[in-house]
């Protein structure tokens, strides 16, 4: 995850992800990785990691996690299930989570409607 401007939608995602196992490992993408497919984060990687680590549902954070998950990465970190919001297309799931998707280890949780980092930024910009 990117986890920029950590908000209630992120908390909901992590709470639901935690229900898929007994240890929640969260991979946090670097600024450059996030910028390669969306905008550059407002918060630094260190700031995002600090906030995500403090969430009560999170047991471990992997800083600068890879954008594309490999079998080696899953094995190295003992990851048995990968969780993502349900806004991911099948093509994107295959591209980003290939081995986990192919092995049936990819679970989806409902995205929280009405809140996103992009929407929060727009709220700030729209304020008088």
From TrEMBL:
Coiled-coil stretches noted in the UniProt entry, renumbered to this chain: none
InterPro entries attached to this UniProt entry: Cyt_trans-like (IPR004821), Ect1/PCYT2 (IPR044608), Rossmann-like_a/b/a_fold (IPR014729)
Superkingdom: Bacteria
Keyword Transferase recorded: yes
Alphabetical UniProt keywords: Lipid biosynthesis, Lipid metabolism, Nucleotidyltransferase, Phospholipid biosynthesis, Phospholipid metabolism, Transferase
An example Gene Ontology biological process: phosphatidylethanolamine biosynthetic process
Cytidyltransferase-like domain span: 4-123
NAD recorded as keyword: no
A GO molecular-function annotation: ethanolamine-phosphate cytidylyltransferase activity
Associated pathway: Phospholipid metabolism; phosphatidylethanolamine biosynthesis; phosphatidylethanolamine from ethanolamine: step 2/3; Lipid metabolism
E.C. numbers: 2.7.7.14
Gene3D superfamilies xref list: HUPs
GO cellular component: cytoplasm
Family: Belongs to the cytidylyltransferase family.
Name of the protein in question: ethanolamine-phosphate cytidylyltransferase
């Amino acid at each position: 995850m990117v986890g920029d401007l950590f908000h209630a939608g992120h908390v909901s995602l992590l709470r639901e992800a935690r229900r898929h196992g007994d240890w929640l490992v969260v991979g946090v993408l670097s600024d450059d990785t996030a910028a390669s497919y969306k905008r550059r984060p407002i918060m630094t990687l260190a700031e995002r990691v600090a906030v995500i680590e403090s969430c009560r549902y999170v047991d471990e954070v992997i800083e600068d996690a890879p954008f594309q998950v490999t079998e080696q990465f899953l094995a190295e970190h003992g990851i048995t299930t990968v969780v993502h919001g349900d806004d991911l297309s099948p093509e994107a799931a295959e591209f980003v989570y290939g081995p986990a998707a192919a092995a049936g280890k990819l679970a989806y949780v409902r995205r929280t409607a009405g809140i996103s980092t992009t929407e929060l930024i727009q709220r700030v910009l729209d304020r008088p």
